[in-house]
């Protein structure tokens, strides 16, 4: 469920940029819709920045602690950050809230994959990772267009509150049903970040940065451009979000078949 919420909260802003810009930047929207849309894109950039900052630092800093406890705390941070995204009073505070909401993103998937692999066995690590990422895949195909449609009809704040409710339920489920798993008591921050000294790691990071950077740049404003800024094609935005989400399916299938 957390994966589903992450996929939804990460991508739903793409389909709601015109709505967010009209609400948070009304003066700028009246004078230049193009500039208002461009500036509202900072919400997407802020979340991405949170992912970049949080993924290595949180994963390294929490490696020695109980994985169940860390996952629960991360789900709570997701909840609070997403609620703040919906209730913050100004554009600047919403940007800050999106940054906070993005901090647990990468660390959660990494730790959840370790927990799943431990439960399913080393020979099914690929399937375990695919299972953890299944929520992200479903979110892009189903969750993002559904929440986008909700945001267009009931307000973008309602969309974020709906996602926050998912995170809250997931946090409770993790606390109640995920078995305790200890961390690595020998882990240190220095050892964890030592991997950054390997060129292959930087190559992988650069590849991901270029690929996802281009993906976000194209689709963030493509949906808004097709809307035309007047809100009359909101249904098309939701459908295009669904169309975009299908690209996740191939990677999901490869992970599930791994080890079979």
How would you briefly describe this protein structure?
Residues 1-260 form the Major facilitator superfamily (MFS) profile domain. The protein has 260 residues and is an all-alpha fold. The protein has helices at residues 2-24, 26-31, 33-40, 42-61, 67-87, 91-102, 105-120, 125-154, 156-177, 189-193, 199-227, 234-245, 249-257.
Please name the fourth-level CATH homologous superfamily: MFS general substrate transporter like domains
**What's the N-to-C terminus distance?**
25 Å
Order of helices and strands: HHHHHHHHHHHHH
- Total number of β-strand segments? 0
**SS-based class:** mainly alpha
Largest sheet: none
Instruction: Determine the strand fraction and express it as a percent band.
Output: under 5%
* CATH fold naming: Growth Hormone, Chain: A
Total domain units? 1
Summarize this structure as a short list of keywords or feature phrases.
13 helices; cell membrane; Growth Hormone, Chain: A; single chain; 0% strand; mainly alpha; 260 residues; 82% helix; MFS_dom; transmembrane helix
What does the model show?
The protein is mainly alpha-helical and 260 residues long. The protein has a single domain, classed as Up-down Bundle (Growth Hormone, Chain: A). 82% of the residues lie in helices and 0% in strands. The chain contains 13 helices and no strands. The radius of gyration is 19 Å and the shape is globular.
């Amino acid at each position: 469920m957390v994966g589903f919420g992450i996929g939804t909260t990460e991508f739903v802003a793409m389909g709601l940029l015109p709505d967010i810009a009209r609400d948070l930047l009304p003066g700028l929207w009246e004078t230049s819709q193009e500039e208002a849309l461009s500036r509202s894109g900072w919400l997407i950039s802020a979340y991405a920045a949170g992912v970049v900052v949080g993924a290595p630092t949180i994963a390294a800093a929490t490696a020695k602690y109980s994985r169940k406890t860390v996952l629960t705390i991360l789900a709570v941070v997701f909840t609070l950050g997403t609620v703040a995204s919906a209730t913050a009073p100004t554009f600047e505070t919403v940007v800050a809230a999106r940054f906070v909401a993005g901090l647990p993103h990468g660390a959660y998937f990494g730790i959840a994959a370790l927990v799943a692999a431990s439960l399913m066995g080393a020979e099914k690590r690929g399937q375990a990772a695919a299972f953890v990422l299944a929520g992200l895949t479903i979110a892009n195909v189903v969750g993002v267009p559904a929440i986008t449609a909700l945001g267009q009809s009931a307000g973008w704040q309602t969309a974020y509150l709906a996602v926050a409710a998912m995170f809250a339920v997931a946090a409770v489920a993790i606390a109640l049903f995920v078995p305790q798993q200890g961390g690595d008591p020998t882990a240190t921050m220095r050892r964890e970040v030592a991997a950054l000294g390997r060129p292959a790691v930087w190559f992988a990071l650069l590849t991901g940065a270029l690929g996802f950077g281009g993906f976000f740049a194209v689709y963030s404003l493509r949906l808004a451009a097709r809307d035309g800024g007047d809100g009359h094609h909101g249904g098309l935005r939701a459908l295009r979000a669904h169309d975009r989400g299908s690209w996740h399916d191939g990677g999901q299938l490869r992970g599930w078949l791994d080890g079979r």
